[in-house]
Amino acid sequence: MDATRVILTGRPCDYIHANWIKFADGKKFICTQAPMESSVRDFWQMVLQENCHLIIMLCSFIEEDKQKCVPYFPTLAGTSIMVEDVTITLKERNNNGLITTSMFVVKTKDQELHVRHIQYTEWPDHSAPLKTAGALEIHREIFNNPRQYPLIIHCSAGVGRTCTIVGAELMLERISARQFHTATDIVRIMRRARAGAVQKAVQFLFMHYIVLEVFCQVLHLHAQLNYSGVYSDEAISTFS
């Protein structure tokens, strides 16, 4: 995906496992693999280089006893970590029961950037949550992010959970523009930018639920739904 890949500058190698997905309304997403030991400095280079003020993380560091992401930021307010020549300082950290919000100051000798970090950990890999509440919180964060600033979104591989969220946002953007694409069209569009976007049919289904819930909230139609009966553990297996 050379046409959409993020090209690093000022690093020994210009490659990072990340691609742009850009919307007609000006929103810009960088979909990326979770930082690993070999790529943490490159990840923060991308944040600084692209002037990203919002990072959305859709995974835990460890899932099912496997490391999905290295700890690339401090978790205790007032503390810092160093990643080569980059200092990341945590100013504030809050959890509202759905998402954890952290505010970082990211500094090099030449640059300082204030970054908002959102982590949602209730989304199993290769699957989907039983409720959309966390995804709706993420939607609000994306909606409030100024369009002149791209945002970074990652899970572990940066294709399943990540592109499910981006796909829902793209569906909403196209509907708002009265360009009525099917969800299959949306996935095809994303896969031209990020190979393997949306890994499972249950994630494809969840894209629809996010869009449905957004419109229901806008129209004040009902309280949030629970989709456990739609894709229970037994039902999920039929989508694999």
UniProtKB/TrEMBL annotation:
<dbReference type="InterPro" id="IPR029021">
    <property type="entry name" value="Prot-tyrosine_phosphatase-like"/>
</dbReference>
<feature type="domain" description="Tyrosine-protein phosphatase">
    <location>
        <begin position="1"/>
        <end position="214"/>
    </location>
</feature>
<feature type="domain" description="Tyrosine specific protein phosphatases">
    <location>
        <begin position="150"/>
        <end position="205"/>
    </location>
</feature>
<dbReference type="InterPro" id="IPR000387">
    <property type="entry name" value="Tyr_Pase_dom"/>
</dbReference>
<dbReference type="Pfam" id="PF00102">
    <property type="entry name" value="Y_phosphatase"/>
</dbReference>
<dbReference type="InterPro" id="IPR003595">
    <property type="entry name" value="Tyr_Pase_cat"/>
</dbReference>
<dbReference type="InterPro" id="IPR000242">
    <property type="entry name" value="PTP_cat"/>
</dbReference>
<protein>
    <submittedName>
        <fullName>Protein-tyrosine phosphatase</fullName>
    </submittedName>
</protein>
<dbReference type="GO" id="GO:0004725">
    <property type="term" value="F:protein tyrosine phosphatase activity"/>
</dbReference>
<dbReference type="InterPro" id="IPR052782">
    <property type="entry name" value="Oocyte-zygote_transition_reg"/>
</dbReference>
